[in-house]
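Risk register update: the risk of archive-format incompatibility is retired. Evidence:
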Amino acid sequence: MAAEAFNARQFLAFGMDILGVERWEFLKETSVIERFTNAYGAKPITCEQMWTDLISMGEVNKKSKPMHLFIALRFLYKNDTELDLMSFFKIGSDNTIRKWCWSYVKKIQKLLKGKMLTWEEADDGMIFFLTVDGTHCPIEEPRPFSKIWSSHKFGGDAALNY
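Archived output:
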């Protein structure tokens, strides 16, 4: 069974309802979208595009709900614990949160794999932007000691930040 398609405005309405924001239609649109993005880590239009792509890939069905996608997005964006997610989404069971969170994280992963190019597929004229996650690599502590080499990820020991 095919899942229902939703537009960005509907995703915004679902997200604001979960946040408990009443009469959001009368608020300034930029502040509403900022609040939505701060809660879920993506704009409503991005949620619409992801949902449409998930439908086309057959990853969502008629029982799928936008809240399931929101659970995974919130987890990926805020790195919330299961208890935090249960409170935020007002769901009483950790098994339910875990089920929907990891189910949709895997669906998003499949979605990303389908969207990404390999280096071999790239044209010579393509320009890529790459980001690095700020990986800290332990190093021998340079002398004289300086706090600029300290890393909170290694308890203050020396590390390079990439």
